[in-house]
Amino acid sequence: LLTMGQKIVAGFLYAKLRRAQQMGVKVEIDFAVPSSKMPCEEVDLIEILGILLDNAFEASESGDIVKLVYLLDGEHVRLEVSNIAPQMSNEQMMRMFELGYSSKSGKRGFGLHNFKQIAKQYNAKIILKNEFNRLTIGLLFKA
């Protein structure tokens, strides 16, 4: 994080990593996108990271591993977060992006809806995989 060109994003990630550490959740990071290739506004990147990491941490238990990938992948920038999760149907996965839908109780269900709106704003493709007991959610931006 100390070598990132995006200091505000680095500070935000540092705070999230501290939270994960307090929860006993390990975070593996593969974060290597130069500032010149940042595919969206910094504020939107922070919102995306916040939504994905918060959801992954809430679904995790002490000892679990959350993976964060933010890479330049050919002509695309790939940003994704994965965590341990049970197998879900395609219908369940698509409902996650509906306004107000939440697998948890209380007034929730705004994060992934907002995530979807940011994806539309940048013409990014949503990455959604549920395989090998892991749920991966992210975005694929045109570099």
Plain-language structure description:
The chain is α+β, with helices and mostly antiparallel strands. The chain has four helices and five strands, in the order H-E-H-E-E-H-H-E-E. Helix 1 (7-23) packs parallel to helix 2 and helix 2 (42-58) packs antiparallel against helix 4 (111-121). The longest helix has 17 residues, at 7-23. The radius of gyration is 15 Å and the shape is globular. The mean pLDDT is 90.
Question: In percent terms, what proportion of residues is strand?
Answer: 25-35%
The biggest beta sheet reads: 5 strands, mixed
Spans with pLDDT under 50 lasting ≥5 residues?
Answer: none
Mean pLDDT: 90
Following the backbone from N to C, one meets helices and strands in this order, namely HEHEEHHEE
Radius of gyration: 15 Å
- Count of helical regions: 4
Secondary structure topology:
Layout: H1 7-23, E1 26-32, H2 42-58, E2 65-73, E3 76-84, H3 90-95, H4 111-121, E4 125-131, E5 134-142
Parallel strand pairs: 1-2
Antiparallel strand pairs: 2-3, 3-5, 4-5
Précis, in short:
With 143 residues, the chain is of the alpha+beta class. It has helices at residues 7-23, 42-58, 90-95, 111-121; strands at 26-32, 65-73, 76-84, 125-131, 134-142.
Please give a handful of descriptors for the protein shown.
alpha+beta, single chain
